[in-house]
Each structure stands twice: as C-alpha cells, then as structure tokens.
Design goal:
This is N-acetyltransferase domain-containing protein. It contains 2 helices and 5 strands. By secondary structure, the protein is an alpha+beta fold. About 25% of the residues lie in helices and about 30% in strands. A 5-stranded mixed sheet has the order 1-2-3-4-5.
Length: about 100
C-alpha cells in the first residue's frame, strides 16, 4: 500500500468497506455471514483512478477480515487478481471457494 493511504481509516458500513481520500471514495461491496465475508465489487471514484486507492481499500479490508477470524470469498475480480498478485493473502481465502485452486 502506498504510504499516503496508510493512516486513512477503513470504514465498515452495513454494505461496504470504504476509505475516503480528499472527499472521494474507494469501496468494496460485501456480504457477511457468521464465518465468511464475500467481497463482491470494488470501485473507486474516477478522481482516485490510478492513485492506488482501490488497492489500499482491498489491503485494509483483507487485514480486517484476517483480524476478524473470518474466511474470505473473493468474488470480486479485482480482489481475486489482487490475491493472485499477493499470494500471501491466500491464507485467509476459504478453501471451499470455487476458484481457490486458481489463486
């Protein structure tokens, strides 16, 4: 994660994880059960394009999931690609996830 995002807090609402950067948002829509968090869609406001904000919200969310003790279901293609690029995060993916062997 780029240093400029490290101190920006991750906010969890009932539908998304998000960070705010200069009045603009990068977020991930999710669904949560007792044992799993499914990440559905990642998006950043156009003003944040190319800044690394989307990667920052993903990394902060993965840290949150790991700390919660839940397992990840990376349905979002961006999150899936992030984990392929950073395979150390595979440790929190639910082994029953359909694409687990492709990570």
């Amino acid at each position: 994660m780029k240093p400029e995002f490290e101190n920006i807090p991750l906010v969890k609402t009932d539908k998304r994880f998000q960070i705010e950067v200069n009045g603009h948002y990068a977020f991930i829509d999710y669904r949560e059960t007792t044992h799993q968090i499914a990440l559905i869609h990642t998006e950043a406001d156009p003003e944040l394009g190319g800044t690394g904000a989307a990667a920052a919200v993903v990394e902060k969310t993965l840290n949150y999931i790991e700390e919660s003790g839940k397992k990840l279901l990376p349905f979002c293609p961006y999150v899936f690609a992030f984990i392929k690029k950073h395979p150390e995060w595979k440790r929190i993916v639910d082994e029953k996830f359909d694409g687990y062997d492709k990570l």
